[in-house]
Amino acid sequence: MTETESLESAFRFACDDVAAWSRDQEKIRSLLAPLRNKSSTTHVHYLHSLRVALKSREIARFQHMEEKPLLFAGALHDIGKAQVPPEVLRKTGPLTSEDQRLIKQHVIDGYRLLRGCFDFSAAIMLSHHRFQSDAYPKKMPKQLHPYATATRLLIAESGRMLALADSY
């Protein structure tokens, strides 16, 4: 079994284990397809996304939190990178300011792709780079829903857990 097949199998098992509907699983696969299929560079980000999904779920379970939103947010946290030119994603040396702008835009691009289908997970993934020294996005988009204070705190805490899984 290849690494891709192994991670996809583990992700399917995790989705089934958290009782994710088959239509949600299919929607996630279709959202991830550009990362999986665009290029070998984006495929690396696809595999990373599956790893982050599984790690996010583990963290949620450890914290006794709802696992499904973090599993979904982890899987979808980098889907906006499919919009970034592969030559920018491939760079290993210093990035130009334009390269950095293109990479940082992946959060907003991903949020736009997710809103309307996975709103809670979209709100979580929106903040996954807010906990680093050069936090972004600088200007957060308007929330899709008037979340209660407790829900906004849960989103922020879940975003912190997603950031941890992403850097792990």
Which spans of ≥5 residues are poorly predicted at pLDDT below 50?
none
**Topology as H/E string?**
HHHHHHHH
Number of helices: 8
Q: Specify the helix fraction band.
A: 55-70%
Give the overall shape.
Answer: globular
Q: What is the CA-atom radius of gyration, in angstroms?
A: 15 Å
- Average pLDDT works out at 92
Largest sheet: none
Number of strands: 0
What is the beta-strand fraction?
A: under 5%
**Structural class designation:** mainly alpha
Distance between the termini: 24 Å
Write the topology of this structure.
Blueprint: H1 3-17, H2 22-37, H3 40-62, H4 67-76, H5 86-90, H6 97-114, H7 119-126, H8 149-167
Question: How would you describe this structure to a colleague?
Answer:
There is one protein chain. 68% of the residues lie in helices and 0% in strands. The chain is globular. Helix 2 packs antiparallel against helix 3. The chain has eight helices and no strands. The chain has 168 residues and is mainly alpha-helical.
Summarize the structure.
With 168 residues, the protein is an all-alpha fold. 68% of the residues lie in helices and 0% in strands.
Please supply descriptive tags for the structure shown above.
168 residues; mainly alpha; 0% strand
